[in-house]
Amino acid sequence: MPLSLGELGGAALLLALAFSAWGLVGGAIGAIRRDPRLLTSARMAAFATFLAMTAAIAIMEVALLTDDFSVSYVADTSRVGSPLWVKVVTLWAALEGSLLLWGWLLSGYWALLASVAPNTPLRPWALTTMAGVQLFFVLVPALIAPPFLIVEPVPLDGPGPNPLLQNHWMMAVHPVLMYLGFVGLTVPFSYAMAALITKRPGSEWMASTRRWTLLGWGFLTAANVTGGWWSYEVLGWGGYWAWDPVENVAIMPWLTATAFVHSVQVQERRRMLKAWNLLLIVLTFSLTLLGTFLIRSGVVSSVHAFGDGPVGPYFLAFFVLVMFLSLSLLALRWDQVRDRADLDHPVSREGAFLGTNLLFLALTFAVLLGTLFPLIVEAVSGARVTVGAPFFDQATLPLWMGVLALMGIGPLLPWRRAPDQTLFRNLAWMTGAAVATAAVAAAVGMRGVYPLLTVALAAWNLASLALLLTGALAARLRARRQSVVQAVRRYAHENKRRFGSMIVHFGVVMMAVAIMASSAYRVDEQIRIDLGGSTEWYGYTLTAADRFMDATEARVRAGAVIDVHRDGRRVTTLTPTINVFAGQSMSVPTPDVLYRPLYDIYLNVAANIGPDQEFVVLRAVRSPLVTWIWVAGVVMAIGTVYALTPSAGAARETRTSKTEERAQA
Amino acid sequence: MSVRTAPHPVRSPFARIAAALLIAVGLASGSVAAQPTAGPGAQIELESTVFDVGRQLRCPTCVSESVAGSNSAIATEMRSEIRELLQEGRTEREILALYRERYGDWILLEPPREGIHLWVWALPAIALAAGVGGLALLMVRWTRASRAAEREEPLDPDARRRVREALEESA
Amino acid sequence: MTRIVLIIAVTGALGGLFLYGLLRGEPDRDIRSARLDRPAPTFELPLYARYQAEFGPTFSSAEALGERPMVVNFWASWCGPCYEEAPELQEAWRRHGDEVQFVGVQTQDRGKRTEGRAFIDQFDLGFPNVIDDDSRLGIEYGLFGVPETFFVRSDGTVMYKHAGPVSLDDLETRIAELTAP
C-alpha cells in the first residue's frame, strides 16, 4: 500500500527532528572537543534538515493543491473551490502551517550559513545555536502542532482559510517577509551566543553577521510596511496602523533591531558597547519569540488573532529558556564584555548613536508596557483596563521626534572628536531649514505641535542629507574633473553602505511626513447616497450609480458602484464591497481606494446593501499623503538592498532582481 | 459573528444565509436615515468629530477595535448616538464621561490619568529619565576616564588608539 | 551573583505574568459592570403583543420598580447561549415572578420581530419582553455582548451583572440576595 501524504510529511518532519537534534548535540560535543569530524557531520546536519524540511513543505503543498483532505491541516484550512493562489498560500494561513513555514525558512538560513560562513572559531557554536533554535521550530510542527495528522474518514471538503486571509494577495507576501525577518535575526543572535561561549566578545561576531543583520532588519521593515498596506486595503477603517497587539509585537523586534543596526557601528569603529550590543541582539531575538507567543496563545486580545493552538506553553517555555540562558551567559562573561572608559566627547558620532539607542529602547519599553499593561493589571488587581491607540500615540510621538532629530545630527558628527567649526555651520543650515519650513507650514495654516515639528524635522533631515552629500562630493569635484552626476554615481558606488543608509534615512523622512499628514489631517465621514444621486466630497463628486449582489461558489458579495467625477470628468469607478466566503461565517469588507499623490479617497460599505434598498451607506475617508508611506517603504527597501550589495560589479544582477522583488512587495 | 437567519429574496440557500450576514455588518436603516441636515461644511466637521470621539472609545462587542474603526452594528449605533449627543451640544469630554459611566474605564482607549492607570503613563517617562540619567552618568565617567588616561599617557591620540585596538584585538 | 539573581527575577517575573495569562486563557467578556451599586437606567420600550394585554403597548421600568426588585435579561435571536438560558429564566420567573419583576430585552437584533416572536414562543416566556430596536438600551446598560442579566434592587440600583448564560442556580442565589430583607 502506498504511503499517504500525511505519513510522508510526518516522516519528513521526524527526519528533520533527528537531523536538527544531531546538529545541536553533535555540534556542541564537536565544539567542546574541537573534533573536526564531528563538526563537519553537525554541519551536514544543517543541509539534511533543510532537505527534510523542504520535503515536508513540498508534501504539504502537494496535499493542498491536490485537495488531499486526509491531511489534517488541509482538512482544517483548505477548500476545493479556492483559487490556486489561495491554496498555495494556505500553507501559512493557519497556525500549524505557518510554524512549518517558519521552520523551513530557518532551516534554509541555517543551511546557507553552514555553507557560506567562513571557518572561524565562532562558526561551530554559531551553527550549534542555530541548530538549537531549529530543533525547537521542528519540534513544534513535528510533535506539538502537527499539520500532518491523518484524518479518517476523509472529508469531502474543508472550510477554507480565514476569510481575512483570502481577501487580498498581500497574504502571499507579508507573512513570508515577517518570518524572513524573524529568522534572519536568528543568525546574529547565534553568532552573539558563539562569541560569548568562546569568550571572543570582540567585533568579530558582528563583522561576520553584518549583512545578515541588515537583511533581517530589511525584511522586518518591509514586513511592517506591507502589513500596514494590507490593513489599509482590507480592514475597512481607512487606517494602516491601529496599535493592535499583533502590530505592537511586530514593531518591537524592529525597534530593537534598528537600535542594534546602529550601535554595532559604534563597536566596529570604536570597540565600545560590547555588552550593550550583545544585550540588544538577545532582546531582539527574545522579542520575536515573545511576539509569537503573545499572538498564538490568545493571552492578549487582538483583531488579527491567529486563534490559539496548543503552542502557547511551549513558546513561553522557549522564550524563558532563551532569555535565561543568553542573559546568564552574558552575566558569566560580564568581565570580558564590560566597556572600558573610552568616550572622548559626548557630542560625537558615538554619542549620537548612544542617544538613538536610548530612544529606541524607550520606544520598545513604552510599546511593551502598553501591550502588557492590561494583563499586568488583571494579574495584580483583577480589573480590566484598556490601553489603546491614543496612549501609544502620545507615549511614542515625543520619542519618534527625538529619533528624527538625532537622525539628522548623527551622520554629520565625526567619530571621537569634539564638535568643530564645520559642525556648527551645518547645524546652522539645518536649523535654518527647519525653522523656515515650520514657518511656511504655519503660514499656510498648519497647526499643532507635532505636525509642525514633523515638517520642521523633515526639513532638518533633508538639509542634513544634502550637507552630507555635498560635503562628500565637494572634495571629489575639486580633486577630479567630473560632472556632478558622475561624482554622485562614483560616490554611491564606492560607499555602498553609507549611501544606502542615506537612501534609507530619506525613506524614513518621507514616511514620517506621510504618517503625520495621514493621521493628523485625516477626515472620516459616514455618507448616505440615494441610488442615482450624488454627493460632493472634497472636490470629487461621488455618484451612486448602482449596487450589486452576486454569488459565486467561493463567495457572496454585495457592493456599491460609485462613479467618481472631478470637474465634470469621470475619474474612476469605485466598488466598495462586502464579502462572505463560503464555509465561513465572518463577513469581510473590501474597501476601494482612489490612490492619489495628495490624498486618497477611501470608500467602504458601512451598512447593509439590500436588493430593495434605494440608497447606499458608505464610510468615506480622506487621508492625505498616505500613498507616500508605501513609497517610503519601497525607498527604505531599496536603500537596504543597496547597502547590502557587495561592491563588485558582479553583484549587479542579484541587486536588481532583489530590488524588483521588494518593489513588488 | 454568527447570525442565525433572515428572510431575504435571494436565490440559493447559501446566498440567503450570506445575505443575512451581510446585513449583520450594517445597521437598522432607521438610524441611517437620521443623518444631520446642516450644510455640507458643518456636516463634515460634525462627522469628523464623531469619528474623533469614536477613536477614543473601545467597541464593546469587538475583539480589539475602536468605535471609529469597527463597522459592527454596536459601533455604528454608538457613532449615531455620539452624533446626536454632539448635535445636542454635548462636548467630547462629556460624551467620553457618559460612556465611562456605562462601561467603566475599560471603554476608554486612552487610559485616564488617575488610579492604577497612572503607572502606564508614568513608567515610560520614568524609564526614559532613568535611561537619560544613566547614560549621562556613564558618559561623564567615560569622558573623564578617557581624559585622565590621556594625561597619564601623553601619547598622541592616534598612537594611543592603535595601542588600545591592538590590546583589545588580542583580548 | 547579583546579576544572576537579577536575571532570574526578570525572566521569572515575565514568565510568571505570561503563565498567568495562559492559565487565564482567552480574556472573556465578564467585565465588572460600571453600573454596580448605581441607579440602573430606566426605560420605556415597546412590548411584544402577547404581553400588551397585561402592560399596555409599552413597558416602563420606572413603574415596575419601587416595591419590587427587577431582573433585566438582554438577549438576541441569533445568540446561541440565549436559547440555553431562556428556559432557566422562565422557570425562575415561574417561581419568583410575584416577588421579582422579570423583563427580557431583545437587543443587538435590529428589531427582528419575527425571530423575536419565535424565540419567545419557543420557550413560552411568561415575563414581559421588550424590543430594543436600536440597541440603545443595551449601550446604556453597558452591555459587552448577549446574553447579560442585570439584577436591580427595588431602590433601582444595580446589585449584580451576570455575563453569559445564566443558570437557575445563579438566578436563585441572586434573587435570594435581592429579596433578602
Properties at a glance:
heterotrimer; A: alpha+beta; six-stranded antiparallel beta sheet; four-stranded antiparallel beta sheet; B: 171 residues; mainly alpha; Helicase, Ruva Protein, domain 3; elongated
Helix content of chain B: 55-70%
Helical stretch count of chain A? Answer: 21
The percentage of residues in β strands of chain A lies in: 5-15%
- What is the number of E strands of chain A? 10
Shape of chain B: elongated
Q: What is the string of SSEs of chain B from the N terminus onward?
A: HHHHHHH
Summarize the structure.
The complex is a heterotrimer of chains A (665), B (171) and C (181). Chain A is of the alpha+beta class and 665 residues long.
Question: What does this protein look like?
Answer:
The complex is a heterotrimer of chains A (665), B (171) and C (181). Chain A is α+β, with helices and mostly antiparallel strands and 665 residues long. In chain A, 63% of the residues lie in helices and 11% in strands. Chain A contains 21 helices and ten strands. Chain A has helices at residues 5-33, 36-65, 72-77, 84-89, 95-116, 123-144, 174-184, 186-197, 204-234, 245-270, 274-297, 312-332, 334-337, 349-381, 389-409, 421-443, 449-479, 484-494, 496-520, 627-644, 652-664, and strands spanning 523-530, 534-537, 540-551, 555-566, 569-574, 577-581, 587-590, 592-594, 599-605, 615-624. In chain A, the strands form two sheets. In chain A, strands 2, 3, 4, 5, 6 and 7 form a six-stranded antiparallel beta sheet that branches. In chain A, strand 3 and strand 4 form a beta hairpin. With 171 residues, chain B is an all-alpha fold. Chain B is elongated, with a radius of gyration of 30 Å. Chain C is built from seven helices and seven strands. In chain C, helix 5 links the parallel strand 4 (101-106) and strand 5. In chain C, helix 4 packs across helix 7 (168-179). The model of chain C has no long low-confidence stretch (mean pLDDT 89). The chains are: A alpha+beta (665), B mainly alpha (171), C alpha/beta (181). Chains in contact: A-B, A-C, B-C. At the A-B interface, helix 14, helix 15, strand 1, strand 4 and strand 10 of A face helix 1, helix 2, helix 3, helix 6 and helix 7 of B.
